[in-house]
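Table 4 source record.
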Amino acid sequence: MTTIGDVAKAAGVSVATVSRALRGVDRVSPRTRDRVLAAATELHYVASPAATSLVSGRTRGVGVITPYFNRWFFATVVSGIEKILREEGYHVLLCDLEGHTFDTRLPITQSMLWKRADGAIILNVPPLPSERSVLERLGMPVVTVGNQQPGWPSVRIDDRAAMAIATQLAIDLGHREIGYAGTVPASITHLQTPFDRRESFTQVLSDNGLECPPEWTLECDWTAAGAAEHANRLFDRPHFPTCIVAASDEMAFGVMSAARRHGLDVPGDVSVIGIDDHVHAEIFDLTTVRQDVEAQGRRAGRLMLDALHGRDSANIIDEVHDVQLMVRGSTGPPRRRSSRTRSRRAATAVGAPATVGSPAS
């Protein structure tokens, strides 16, 4: 294996000069640097990242702190971040905070990042005061995605506005009996999005003289399976809403699955609306409010690189990305109650095929 000494010998310079040339230190003439780079290329020399970081004090890594990694939203944000960082030779250090249950998470600690990352990008997790102290003590730049934090650049959508669009669509279609999927236990203090979207849903209903009864509110873990489980119980009731607004597309998928299992037509018997425009939303013909998740990741990566290279402006950026209503086949006006017969449900076995996402009438 080629060593730095071999490169120094081939270039006719000292090992220290090779080190400075490869790290881009200014105290090397352009001619000498070109000679070193040519020798390194010819000998296929690759500097040890660990050794380089010891000398420079930089790891060329960025810690990405996420509450979940196996969820579509977070994985897509990370993908966008990684695409930008690798353009300038940086890599992602994944810090997954997922706990053993939905309402718990691991803490952000110094050992996660110290001497392992040059900066941190935090996804949808409002840090506790003690965690913020850790990050400030480390003296590294921080960027947030999904929620705004004082003094740090952020990239996000307006979650309240997105939910208002989804809820208003249901009302504009004529629905007055509207359910909701996405309430989380009060113990979920480490995620802001669920509370913002629920509050917006309730406010829009109230502004239109409507309300969602508790039995039409699905509390779940923001997964398709969790939403399906709760929606199954809802559709077992003799009276259920004509439309369900879900706080995420994954939960909307769960609601649509439960409707199918009960022999219900979507949107004939129940309309379903989501938020996100998940990669599978178009396949499932789901009406949703689109956010460009990967673009948020790319922008967060760019803000981090700006900070690492001293290009950040004096003003703290809070960048709110636009959302877009995508009307598809899972929504339509409500049918009259007399036409929403229960006989189809009774005659349809669990798991039997039924129409999902038929065109709105």
